[in-house]
Every structure is written in C-alpha cells, then in structure tokens.
Amino acid sequence: EGKAIRFGLSAIKNVGQAAIAAILSARKESGFTSLTECLLKVETSKVNKKVLESLIKAGAFDRFGKRSALLESLPVIKDKISRLVKGKGNGQGGLFDGLDSGSNKIELKDQLPDIPELPMPDLLKFEKQLLGFYLTHHPAKDILKLAGDRVTHRVSQLDPSYHLGQTVTLAGILSSVREVNTKKNNSRMAFATLEDDTSTVDLVIFPKLFAKNPSFWQEEKALLVTGKVDNRDSTLSILVDEVEEIDPNQSLPDQLFEIDIPRGTPKEILVKINELLKSYPGKDRIIILIPNGGPPKRLTLPYTVNYTEELKLKVNKLIH
C-alpha cells in the first residue's frame, strides 16, 4: 500500500485467532499509542508473553520503538500492569476494566531503555521464523554483492527450456537441507534449496562433493554454487559440481550497479555510454547486461565509476 507493506496478524507464527480477535477488539476504539497501552487494553487471558514476543520480533510494534528495547521492556511493563490490577483476580477482560477512576493518571508512554537495535542477522532470523520471509532486508542481496561478477544468473532468470544442461553459477542462502543415504552404497548426499533475492531453486549434491565439505550443507549457510541446470521430474534443479562458502560478515565491496541495455540499442549509443561512465571516476563497479537471445550476457566493466543519481539519469536518457 504505497510505500508500506501490510500483512495480516494471522501470518505471524504463534499468534492464534483468539489473540488476534482480542487485539483487534481492543484496538477498535482508539488504537494503541504504546506497548503499555496495548497490554492495558487487550484481554490478557488471550494474549500471553509468547504472542507478544512474536509480535515484537515480527515488527508489529515497530512504531513504538526498537525491537530490542521492546523485548527488554516487556517483562517490566507486564509486571507493572500486573501490580496495578493485582486485585482483579480472574484475568478476564482488558486490564483497563480492573482499574479505578484513578486509572486515567496511569503513564501510558513506554519507558524504553536506550539500547542498540538487535543485530541485523537476528532481526532477519526472527522475521524468517515468524513470517516465512525477510521483511527488513534480504540477506541474499549482500551475498550477491560479495560474490560479485562470479554470479552468472539470478535464480528467476533460469529457464529450463533455454538453460537445460548449461553450467551456471548462483549465490544465495540455503533455506532448507535434507540429507539422505544412497541406495547403491549407502553414501551420504543431500538435497537443498538455495534462495537469492529473486526466487528459490533446488540443489542436488552428490556423495563425492558432499563428502568434501559436509559442514557447508546447513540451513542459513551462504554459498556460491556452480552446476548444471536439470529439469528432472519437471522440476528445475541444479546438479552441483562446485561450491564455495561465503562469509556474510566480511566487509561489503564498493557498490555494484547493473545497466540493462535494451535490445536494438545502436553501437554509437553504447560508445557514448562508455565515454559517459568514464567521465565519472569512482569506486562503484558496473555490470552491463547485453541482450543475448535468452537471459542477457553480463559484462563487468574494467574500470570503476561514481554512479550518482545524476549519472544514472544521464545513462537512462541515452538508452530510452
């Protein structure tokens, strides 16, 4: 919706229908201005600590503060509210129901600690666990930058009718791994799913390669894989020949930009683009995507540039 991403509470793991109904009912009148107000208004028997932690980790309360601070404050806020309504007894209804006329003086503003946000890997891990996808940032984007021009294709560019039998190199993160023993000689091999920032693809890792680096084949591992495109059983997969682990904690290289050249672009325009790029020296790497029948050919320029918005506009003006 515009620049916002909206998804239902039911999409969040550990948040059941009873909890959702309680939250929506409490929010209906005037919404929530803080985590404290939310906990005061909701029906406490329906929204427990696990639900609240899941909502925080999924980003549902981001408008109230950092996820790290909200998680840190949750036990304190819950304890404060429990003491305020200690005489209520049965825990039915919203906590506002158990307060006397002096409840209007309760401080609804959250008193959050001034602490750093959770590390990005933790934020992303929680989002993946609770939502099934990455919301804040896709970690594969960084892996692709680290792999640079060794990557020949994004997963979404693979076409079984065109690439069948071809060797490709992909980079991404393992989202699932299943190890099995072969029937022939009981050797260990694996089936995995590689995810980049565009899609996922199945990997087949035969015993010889698996035995070389068995520790590589774990969920959340960042890998660069090279192999042949297969379409066995009408399912696109990669028969992996080579694999390299990528350290996601290493420093990212200077930015990498792609320029997609439209089919039929005159040679003189390509010359002008080359001259224009050279006139903006800097540290950014450029990959030119050249039309090639199927997916475009990727050509890394031998020089680096300062790819500013101004330069980007000038390039787009030349090719469109």
Walkthrough of the structure:
It is a single chain. With 320 residues, the protein is an alpha+beta fold. It folds into 3 domains: 9-131; 139-245, OB fold (Dihydrolipoamide Acetyltransferase, E2P); 256-319, no CATH class. Helix content is 31%, strand content 22%. The protein contains 10 helices and 8 strands. The chain has helices at residues 17-27, 35-41, 49-58, 67-84, 120-131, 139-147, 160-163, 207-212, 267-278, 309-319; strands at 167-181, 188-195, 200-205, 222-230, 237-245, 256-260, 281-292, 294-300. The chain has a 5-stranded mixed β-barrel. Strands 6-7-8 form a 3-stranded mixed beta sheet, with no helix packed on it. Helix 9 (267-278) links the parallel strand 6 and strand 7 (281-292). Helix 9 (267-278) runs antiparallel to helix 10. The protein is globular and about 75 Å long. The relative contact order is 0.09.
Beta-strand fraction estimate:
15-25%
Number of domains: 3
Low-confidence runs (pLDDT<50, min 5 residues)?
90-95, 98-104
Count of alpha/pi helices: 10
Largest sheet geometry: 5 strands, mixed, barrel
Kindly report how far apart the N and C termini lie. 29 Å
Q: Could you spell the SSE succession in H and E letters?
A: HHHHHHHEEEHEEEHEEH
- Please tally the β strands and state the result: 8
Placed side by side, the strands forming the largest sheet appear as 1-2-3-5-4
Radius of gyration: 26 Å
Helicity level: 25-40%
Classification by helices and strands: alpha+beta
Give the tags.
320 residues; alpha+beta; OB fold (Dihydrolipoamide Acetyltransferase, E2P); five-stranded mixed β-barrel; 31% helix; globular
